[in-house]
Amino acid sequence: MRNEWQRLKRSLGHATRGICYTVKTQRNMQIHVVMALLVLFLGWFLAVPKGDVLLVFFSVFLVLILETVNTAIEKTVDLVVGEKRHPLAKVAKDAAAGAVLFAAILSILVGVYVFFEPLWQFIQNGERRMIHIRDRDSAAFFLTVAGMYIFVLWLVAQIFRPEKKEDDR
Hints:
Elements: H1 2-25, H2 27-45, H3 50-81, H4 87-125, H5 139-160
Helix pairs in contact: 1-2, 2-3, 3-4, 4-5
């Protein structure tokens, strides 16, 4: 049993070092961590209900998780490919970064949905009161859905955009 606890402790140490490496060396992860702290503070400041903050918490953690996985993929590809360029290495890195982008956009949309009305109330009259999602107007929902549609349209436009040649980049 003692051996299992030692293995668990060692495993948690490796995981912690991986997270610390990512936070220390990856600019985007540093931005995500700062934004996460600001958003969680905003949730407390605006008296957002706990269940709503939990939605934000899950979406923020999804971004942090995927940024960590993205770093692992990038470093693994760099280890395997080295200095030479390979089209599959680029695809792997771009796809991992795309996963982070999806999560970041989800997090933004959740943030708009959760924070729009409490923030609007505070801006209009300085009032910080708890507004449950079920009691909100449809403005936040409309903005969230509009944001999603804009992103999907942008994505479709990117898919059908003509490819640039390597010489043009």
